[in-house]
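A.,

Following up on our hallway conversation. Structure tokens first:
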């Protein structure tokens, strides 16, 4: 459901030649979406633990700024 242009394309009926509007929607659907707000985490002994819950076959990109 997140950042998935293929699913959006299928919901449109799998158009072989998307209209300009459909193309814009597909382009927006393919961009990365956040699933939560940025937050500070405690670093202990140079390590940090991050608990992430993902649906089956999902992928997450975690960005860590020091």
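Then the amino acids I'd put at each of the 66 positions:
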């Amino acid at each position: 459901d997140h950042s998935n242009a293929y699913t959006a394309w299928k919901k449109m009926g799998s158009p072989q030649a998307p209209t300009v509007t459909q193309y814009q929607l597909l382009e927006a659907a393919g961009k990365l979406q956040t699933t939560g707000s940025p937050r500070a985490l405690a670093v202990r002994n140079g390590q940090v633990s991050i608990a992430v819950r993902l649906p089956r076959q999902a992928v997450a990109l975690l960005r860590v700024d020091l």
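The CA atoms of residues 21 and 27 lie 10 Å apart. Curious whether your intuition agrees with the design.

B.
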